[in-house]
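Sync notes, pocket subgroup
Present: LS, DG
LS reminded everyone that the earlier model was apo-only. Rerun requested with molybdenum atom included. Inputs:
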Amino acid sequence: MTTRVGAVLGVASAAVALGVAHLVAAFVGGESSPVIAVGSAAIDLTPEWLKSFAIRTFGEQDKLVLLIGVGVVVTVLAIVLGIASVRRPRTGLVGLAVLGAVGTVAALTRPTSTAVDALPALFGAGAGAATLLVLHRRLASTTATTTTGAEATTHAAGPATAQAGAETYRPFPDGVGRRRFLVASGVSLGVAAAAGAFGQLFSRRKQADASRAAITLPAPSAQAPPAPSGVDFGVEGLSPYYTPNAEFYRVDTALIVPSVPAEDWSLRVHGMVEREITLDFEQLMARPLIERDITLACVSNEVGGPYVGNARWIGAPLASLLDEAGVAPASTQLVSTAVDGFTIGTPVKAVTDGRDAMLAIGMNGEPLPVEHGFPVRMVVPGLYGYVSATKWVVDLELSTFEEFDPYWIRRGWAEQAPIKTQSRIDTPRPLASPPAGDVVIAGVAWAQHTGIEAVEVRVDEGAWTNAELATEDTIDTWRQWRIVMPLQSGNRRIEVRATDATGEVQTDERAEPFPDGATGQHSIVIQVG
Ligand SMILES: Nc1nc2c(c(=O)[nH]1)N[C@H]1C(S)=C(S)[C@@H](COP(=O)(O)O)O[C@H]1N2
Ligand SMILES: [Mo]
């Protein structure tokens, strides 16, 4: 019995120590997490012959094997110390102090370490000690009920129990104490797991941030010319032509933003191809890159909604990559998978028909922000994001539409989803109250991969009047529009509609975003003063 109780006591305390240390390390720096620091120190201290033996034997798994090794050693120590601590908690505390010291020394002797790297092991040892004492008190109080007389009070007071003789020591004579001890141990393990998981998560994010900061985007071989000077009216309240990354809408299913350091990234192209291709980030950056302005839009955007943005992207053309892979003529759907398992299906035709479909690595002059898919995402002009714009993409499989239903298709959204022509009034804001007289009305309109030909505005169901259009950049981008209208006092309803480059006028028929994008015309009411 003592053995089993001791093992639980030791493992729970050690787990809390390591979990908390790992969490603190996420904020201090991942290298300072005791298991990692000790593992790294062990690598440094390992003689060369053993290192090459390990690499030969375990290959890419060598680091995993090492970490498992450290874990096994710690677990065995924890069990031994735990058993000894049932009688003498001080043994466990001393053991934790020694392990904490080892972790601290390992963290402080890493090549890039600073004084704060001592914190994870110290906090961890502290948390482990607290767990040990709490669990031990549970033991002590349950044990005390088995003894009689004055002695009982002494024992109930805590560590004194440790002095109880071997014969009188009987943990858990009743089921209640045992249950309480086990519950407390379970809670400790839960805390340990949660702390460790959070630590892992945050440190991954730090790695991705560091990886991103270290990247210098190569010059694209096909640079985009600077956008024509007339693309941006600079009207106050109007969306700027380029949406700053920090303001770019974000839509994804990720509870926690996937963090993929570029060094760890690779992409597999497979399925209905003649040759599979695997690319790492270096290889992707070394390919001929294009730079293009493309306006992204989300299918769930309501008429007048905010889920649309324009950016200058740098990326590797998808068409040439698929060409190298040799796509089977029967393949109709390009299934892309993100690192978190999210899937998107894009018509192979849309990727190979000459439009600038790309594996993007740059967004508005920077490496992709982590939230927007770092290190690599897809961008395909003219298609809603859910059928084209896979962030954190790691896998491309050539397939057919019959063969596979991606994430949103399984939930009823349309398989094919070209972006619908839309226009939006950005200024004035709804319910604004400008003074009577000339009012500047302005917004954006988009019909990606077709182009915008005209935008018209009307007030209170009057005549549609042509707005002035900003210079067109490309047919894949939105266009700003503006018009100055004399408005009289009172409530005024302003409406807008666009005409695409094929001459088709944006429909006024209202449709919800589900299943393939909203339609209807944006209108606002303002109170002219
Ligand atoms: N991995 C992943 N990629 C994704 C999504 C997602 O949920 N997960 N959402 C898609 C949708 S619905 C849209 S509209 C765009 C949005 O891209 P953004 O967040 O960079 O604006 O990403 C697409 N790519
Ligand atoms: Mo979307």
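DG: Residues 245-411 form a domain with the Sulfite Oxidase; Chain A, domain 2 fold (CATH 3.90.420.10).
LS: Residues 175-213 form the longest helix (39 residues).
Action: DG to write up.
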